[in-house]
Amino acid sequence: MALGIAGLNFGYAGEAPPEVAALINWFWHFYENWVKFIFIIAGSILTLRIVGSTSKTTLRGKNLAGFIIYALLIHILGPYMVGNSELYLFSMPLPWNTTPLQLLDPGSSFFAERFPVLGMAGIMASLIVYALITFVVLVGTLLLGRRWQCSTLCLFNGFASEVFAPAFPLTGKKKQAGKSTLKLFSYLRWLFLAAALFFTIYWLLHLGGAIPGEAATLLSEVEVYKYLGGELLAAMFMWVVFTGRGYCYYCPLGTVLAYLSKAAGQKISTSESECIECGKCNRACPLSIDIKKEAQIKTPVTDLRCVGCGHCIDTCPTETLRYTTRFLDF
Ligand code: SF4
Ligand code: SF4
């Protein structure tokens, strides 16, 4: 349904009569904001009921509460406050994408499309929200680890994988990544991080007047295709055949936050009690981390892939595991 409405909005609305284009645009925003918000609430309730029948939902419940509150801010309250129904475009901080930076360039196609709708006041309000979000995510991660963004705020892939966790993958048995798949993801991780940093640095230098903007149109198009193919469709494909967290293996923002989480001292402590080697934690981990191996020798899990979802902690029958940072103890 989402792809159908998006296709109408981005493919057909530009050529449609103005009243029809306005109706399609309204419907697209209604879907992106209200329908998505209702899906998040309904999916969260269902997930808690399904998962709660077999394990604790202590951390998972906190994740879902975080996503609901953030979705309420970004999809429902925020758009009214700043007069921008596309506030969700600003909900992922740098370096995830550069569309908000492109909005600072009066010569960019992004500015030309949004200015007649938002006006200068709407553009500035959206950019202030974006700067605030970037600040809150970076500082929050330094205090609370990667869990803060990836398992509480991320409205791109984190929310979907948590809210619809029992449904993923939609076909076949849930997959754990083998060695070769992990290697492929690790190459992808550096590739996508390099691309994200390249786009960010280009736009910052261009906006600062250090380099001319001849390549701007081409680069913004390349970034759109990277997003559609390498991120949106790839994430959806993995929802169907692999796991809800497939994209999290190589998300460029996740990679930056993983290193910040190191500075925050994020770890899964494995010595709260004696591990009975049941392996439930490994089966619950959506990032294929070998938690059991560490628990057997009582060393903490500090893998860069850990998004702090807490599934391993909720599922452990002996309460051996605990998520901590220098400033937080779950
Ligand atoms: S190690 Fe635990 S908290 Fe980290 S990603 Fe795996 S299940 Fe989630
Ligand atoms: S779920 Fe707990 S008891 Fe079971 S292997 Fe993992 S850490 Fe050990």
Taken as a percent bin, the fraction of beta residues is: under 5%
Judged by helices, strands and strand pairing, the structural class is mainly alpha
Task: Please give the radius of gyration in angstroms.
Answer: 21 Å
- The oligomeric state is single chain
SSE order, one letter for each helix or strand: HHHHHHHHHHEHHHE
Counted up, domains total 1
Bound molecules: iron/sulfur cluster
Instruction: Give the terminus-to-terminus CA distance.
Output: 38 Å
**Could you tell me the number of beta strands?**
2
Mean pLDDT: 91
Q: Sheet bearing the most strands, described?
A: 2 strands, antiparallel
**What global shape is seen?**
globular
Would you identify the regions where 5 or more consecutive residues have pLDDT less than 50?
none
The total of helices stands at: 13
Helicity level, as a percent range? 55-70%
Summed up:
The chain has 330 residues and is mostly helical.
Overview of this protein structure:
- The protein is mainly α and 330 residues long.
- It has one domain (2-262).
- 63% of the residues lie in helices and 2% in strands.
- It has helices at residues 2-12, 18-52, 58-82, 99-102, 109-144, 147-153, 158-163, 179-207, 216-241, 252-263, 280-284, 291-296, 311-315, and strands at residues 267-269, 322-324.
- A two-stranded antiparallel sheet has the order 1-2.
- Helix 2 packs antiparallel against helix 3.
- The chain starts with a helix and ends in a 6-residue tail after the last strand.
- The relative contact order is 0.12.
- The model has no long low-confidence stretch (mean pLDDT 91).
